Hints:
Strand 1 (4-9) and strand 2 form a beta hairpin. This protein is of the alpha+beta class and 174 residues long. Helix 4 runs antiparallel to helix 6. The protein has helices at 57-71, 74-82, 88-92, 100-121, 140-146, 148-162, and strands at 4-9, 15-18, 39-44, 49-54. Strands 2-1-3-4 form a 4-stranded antiparallel beta sheet. The chain has 2 domains: 4-72, no CATH class; 88-172, no CATH class.
Amino acid sequence: MSSMLYCVVDSQHHVSVAADPLGFANLPGARGAGKIECEQFTFDLESRRLRVVRGTPSGAIAARAYLDRQVGTPERLMTFAANGQLSKGALASLLTIESRPRFLQNCARIERAYTDACRARRQPCLASGCSVEGEDETCLQPLLEAGVEYRKRCAAEWIAAFRAPRNRVVIWRN
């Protein structure tokens, strides 16, 4: 489960962050034909460590200051997550092993609701029909369509668990 945040810092020390599986690709200044205009850093939420991919000490200071404001405390991290910024996998990785199954079950219930609502519309995304029709499975397409809304709903379940320090991985207990 990836709990990585990707950060770019421009020449004016403006920071952009994404928890995108595409990494730096969707961040401002990191686009183009292989040309990277900004300094790059990664921040691992599980270890709370900043790693320099390509940058200067002043860029690292800017990135760290921004990340401290956004995710520097458990409360700030919960706010960041509540806005749909983190994937289910990233959220799960921040819970103790014992707390994860309930969180993942709650997310599965949410995913099932999206799949059921999609089926009820009777407008399958495949020409051959619904890929999970008659199956006890979850379809990815309605989750992709829901996007941030889906991540916010999973984050709400995660926040309910993460509020209790005993449910957090050790590094996030304080």
